[in-house]
TrEMBL record:
Organism of origin: Streptomyces agglomeratus
Family: Belongs to the UPF0145 family.
InterPro entries: UPF0145_dom_sf, UPF0145_YbjQ-like
UniProt xrefs under Pfam families: YbjQ_1 (PF01906)
Gene3D superfamilies: Hypothetical protein apc22750. Chain B
Protein name: UPF0145 protein AS594_15855
Amino acid sequence: MSIEDYGGGQNTRSDVLVVTTNDAPGYRVERVIGEVFGLTVRSRHLGSQIGAGLKSMIGGELKGLTKTLVETRNQAMERLVEQARARGANGVLTMRFDVTDAADVGTEVCAYGTAVVLTKE
């Protein structure tokens, strides 16, 4: 099953469908493989910390931190997909993100879900 079979909606380099729902309309779950996750921890950059501190006093979006968080989430997702693929899955259901502080030196981002084998109905 390739990404073209899914009708788009995600990274075209991926052959694993990742959804936040409990099922994938148009597909049947043939086999549940189990939990998969992708984890990354990013340290805080001193310059962005200072800039964020100043920006928080006057308000507005913290663009540097937003960019870093998007990159971090993308890396966690890539690792989730790699783990699912390595276990023989072509889908991940109920994908979620968990974001926490890591000992006050960085941010931990975990993407997790249930790896499954899907077939088109």
